[in-house]
Design a protein that fits this description.
Helix content: 40-55%
CATH architecture of the largest domain: 3-Layer(aba) Sandwich
Order of helices and strands: HHHEEHEHEHEEEEHEHEEEH
Number of helices: 9
Largest sheet: 8 strands, mixed
CATH topology of the largest domain: D-Maltodextrin-Binding Protein, domain 2
Strand content: 15-25%
Shape: globular
Structural class: alpha/beta
CATH superfamily of the largest domain: Periplasmic binding protein-like II
Distance between the termini: 52 Å
CATH class of the largest domain: Alpha Beta
Number of strands: 12
Number of domains: 3
Length: 296
Amino acid sequence: MEIETIRAFLEVADGTTVTVAAERAHRTQPALSRALSRLEREVGSELFQRSGRGLTLTPAGRELLDSARRIVEAYDRGVRAVQDMAAPQGGFVPLAFLHTLGTWLVPELIRSFRAERPEVRFDLRQHGDAGLVDDLLGGAVDLAITGGLPEHPQIESRRLLIEPLRLVVPPDHRFAGRRSVRLADLAADPFIVLKSGFSLRAVTEHLCVEAGFVPQIGFEGEEVETLRGLVSAGLGVALLPDPHGVGAPAAPHLRVSDVQASREIGIAWIRDRRLPSASDRFRQHVIGNARKVARG
């Protein structure tokens, strides 16, 4: 059973055609088809069935899927560990992070780390909270910089900092001229929030309840900057982190005075999984420097 054949099995299982999988593996399509047939003979069952113009997994293929992913992940971790031994100053860090942290925290942490270890390479992925957990559990990344601390028995995490949240109101809002506001005074306003599954959505709902009301949801989105734009257009209010790396925002960002409006930023990894050297060094760097970056 060749590792590249298992990779091809995973690609086809994810919806890639055999032709494209063959190109990525630098094989001909007939050669890869024969390799997948050998894999089926080895496991003793058909793994794919034709569905229209494509292939879908059989029950046996679905049963093999998780084990195949673990095989590839373990192999890749082993290769990286050997590479780290051969080039101790180099290495490779697969990192996922909350999309709102991509304009300030993550770039600066990587910049300062690579100033000391310029040979280290990064593979970066941006997600909402659920995607970060999936990437960790699936082995796609070693580390995830998160909003909040994931509650999962396989995941270990550590708080990095507390990020303030502001009440963002339209430019012509009745409170636009203020510097601070009570969240309770916005109980009648429509709130613009991230979709369910994002930690910032849960934080918003919790803070509103703490202030004495259940928020009226006007719009839902998947990007914080989209929410900021909707507020600027006068479509509602939102609890959002300060913008970073941009000019003055179009919508006023007000301090919240009646509840502690903030969210946790953390770093997470798989419990009891030994991190490769480069990822472990970057984890230590993040823990030691995140607050310094946040202070500017």
